[in-house]
Amino acid sequence: MRTIYNKRAKMQRAELDGGTQIQFLYKCITNGGYVSFNKVNAETNQLESLFFAHPVSIQLCKMFSCVFLLDCTYKTNRYKLPLLCIVGVTSTNRSFYAAFVFMSNEVETSYAWALECFRTILDQKKLPCVLVTDREIALMNAIAVVFPGAKNILCKFHISRNILAHCKKEFKNGKEWEKFNGKWQQLVDSPRESDFYQTFLEMKTEYEIAYPQVYSYVVTTWITPYKEYFVAAWVDMHLHLGNSTTNRVEGSHSQLKKFLEVSIGNLATIWQTFDQMINLQHTEIKRSFGQSTIQTNRVFSSTLYSDLLGYISITALEYIKKEELRARTGHGSFEGCTHKIKYTLGLPCAHDLLSYIRNNNTFPLWMIHDHWKQLTLREIKEEQDIKEENEADSKIDVEIEGILRRYNNTSDLQKQEIKRKLRELMDPSSTQTLAPSLPTRTKGRPKGSYKKFTSDFKSTKRDPSLFEHVLKSEQLSLKMRPMRTTKKEAISEKRFLKVVQKEMPAYIRDYISDVVDVLGDGHCGYRVISNGMEMGDDWLQVRNDLSRELQQKDILYDAIFGTTRRIELQNSLDCTTTPAPLDKWMTMPDMGLIIASCYNIAVVHFSMFQSFTFLPLHSPPPAVRRTLFMGFIHGNHFVQLKIKDDCPLPPTFSIWRRYHEEIAEQW
């Protein structure tokens, strides 16, 4: 192993060719055609902030400028610099990295600098309509200054997690909490302002006196200052393309960290990883454009779609198909329509389609928002006057004359400094800028540990959020005892183990050492995954993760399940209430491949009806492989199984062999 490390270090030194890491970084950025900006500390000459964007990403930004999602992630580099990721959305519902920004801190001036850099790569006549963020006050203030015309939407998911973290502990029992949480979700999803104020009045009547701390928190922290930022009545008046959470950018963080693997790389090696990842992403996007351009589907064979096929993305067609079904079953009554689809997606509502359906006419292309019509990465043709304006802006005669005047009127030392800066402009790899300073390490072993550095030292895994600590503390307080839905089911663990064993295939019964039961509220399958992935009892996060997997790999899952079934699976994951209705329950084997691919684990599912092993479709195995064992009992409930070593496994799900990518062959 040491020989490998030494060889790798030697190769890295050869790449530097006697230069510094920052010089090599600038050389790579320049050769890759990236647009970059940097901010250097005037006193120490150390790099403080770095903005960079891939040339194809810039083109995508100009094509799809309606919505961007912004969020910082951490543990990506040895300098502990926060990384601001800016993510956009294509017409095929694919995420793309618009730009990356390493920042020295997360104050308003740093965010403003990053956003100003981002604004320079956009089409100034097509600035963003919507920017989705967390409640990061400094970032929100910077957005108001740099993009005053954009609507800032706050992530509903993170707000709900904050409500859980601060309010759940105040309730006497789970039923009271679930009742309050349901009322809160109803408030957030209010389609009209009148509905919002009616629900808010009900909440005030019920909780202002009974739970004053809860009521005060939600009102003063969220409702009064920010209701226009996250409540549907206000948010759904803007073209957010279905993005009312930052889940899309959170998923991009996860993908990024899979590529990074460790958090101790320097900026040069990190950029190389980013470059590979971005190029792969662009390949997937181009492929999704091709699918929308050439793919035909019997679902869209009616006259209604004649002028749309091949001209708008399949994603847009799927949205329209849902509205068509509503129109055909709505009996012509749409008086209560809030025009949500029209405002948020730029697509026709059911009542817009009704007359075209009745008359068997084609829906006109001009009524579809331009976002959905972009299906190629060809250069966008500009008008002649715009070209002339750009040519005028690109001339530097005046600037060169100014530099010469200043050069001729300065001292010899100042002339040397001007020449040095000009050389850096001509050849960025000649820069004298220094790398950021490394975080100071305290001497000696961390108190109470046996090793100076734990495995977390290199990990890219984020630190737990407050709501995760709350969920974990609840589990600890319960001492991980199995949860039963009724008193009748509250039987001893030993007896329950025997019950589960009888529900399993005979060949594995003796290998089951323990069973972890979960609450039977329609979310049991997702609770099993959450528990198995050590995420606490966060079934909602699991649903969001799986939904994001289906969105990001829609072409793959369309090929496996078909578009209609893929949409059904997507819809089944959209549930925030408990108990979950029957159509929102987990179904096997359909979800098996999605779970395995989303979390890059092996999933083994046992039941008396069918047993399979599911493997990831599009990623190689990690250094430490994980396997989640699930059992299905009573025909309606999932549990987590603890299996002894050398247990015989069921066959690999046959679809995996046909559709897995080459990189997943190592499984």
TrEMBL record:
<feature type="region of interest" description="Disordered">
    <location>
        <begin position="427"/>
        <end position="457"/>
    </location>
</feature>
<protein>
    <recommendedName>
        <fullName>MULE transposase domain-containing protein</fullName>
    </recommendedName>
</protein>
<dbReference type="Pfam" id="PF10551">
    <property type="entry name" value="MULE"/>
</dbReference>
<feature type="domain" description="MULE transposase">
    <location>
        <begin position="67"/>
        <end position="162"/>
    </location>
</feature>
<dbReference type="InterPro" id="IPR018289">
    <property type="entry name" value="MULE_transposase_dom"/>
</dbReference>
<dbReference type="InterPro" id="IPR052579">
    <property type="entry name" value="Zinc_finger_SWIM"/>
</dbReference>
